Automatic annotation (TrEMBL):
PANTHER family: CONSERVED OLIGOMERIC GOLGI COMPLEX COMPONENT 2 (PTHR12961), CONSERVED OLIGOMERIC GOLGI COMPLEX SUBUNIT 2 (PTHR12961:SF0). It is a peripheral membrane protein. GO terms for biological process: Golgi organization; intra-Golgi vesicle-mediated transport; protein transport. This is Conserved oligomeric Golgi complex subunit 2. Residues 28-86 form the Conserved oligomeric Golgi complex subunit 2 N-terminal domain. It comes from the Eukaryota. Keywords: Golgi apparatus, Membrane, Protein transport, Transport. Its main location: Golgi. InterPro entries: COG2, COG_su2_N. GO terms for cellular component: Golgi membrane; Golgi transport complex. It is found in: Golgi apparatus membrane. Pfam families: COG2_N. Belongs to the COG2 family.
Amino acid sequence: MSNEDFFKDSDQENTLKDLLSFDLCKELNKEALLKEDFSVDDFLKKIYKFHTLEDLQIKLKEVLKSTEKEIFTLIYNEYNNFFKITCDILENENKIIDLLVRLTKFKNEVQEIYKVIQQNVVNMDEELHKKKELYRRKVLATNLLNVNMMIEDMENLLCTDSEKFDGADIIILQQAAKSYISLKYYSSLVPSQHPFIEKRKEKIQNVQNNFFNCLASALHKYRENALQIENLLKVLQIYREIDASAEACHQLYKIK
């Protein structure tokens, strides 16, 4: 066998191996066609010696049809997904709108309740103010009544002639001292410029002067009589109770 025949047989053998190993379906797939380094010229050079252009055209049409079907399926699925997402968004939007309406309604109800509460607070404040004012007037009236009662008590107790004191009159002075203390207390609870106090200011001064005159007369009477030492001590005790010890000392000094 000549070298030429040998190489010829070798080329035929290699071509047969290539033909047996070549798979057009494998070569024509979307992965191969979508490769970044895919070259039409190289692809045709590789397969032209194994297939006719008609076969390649038929195969390419099949690949194109399959690709179009996949593209249609992909678009259809994507559209369905988009439509589903859109429906979900619209459904959620409706839920959000419904929730917003409910929240707005709830907000309005809360505002109405707040207004009612505020109005009730205002009404309660007004009622409380009225009650406080009524209580203040009641207390004022009670204090004025007590002032008037103490004035009358002292007038009734001290109507006795201050020059005629005996043992029984000590009890009267003690009672008058209690009325005097109460008169000072209730008078302190009433404004000094109150019309009631203004009208009775002279009477109050008179009963107080009369009370101190009676005390002074009793003090002089019992101080001059050594047998009346017990009554003298009681009179001095009255001076101390009404916080007038200085006045008692002044009267005792006058006796000397």
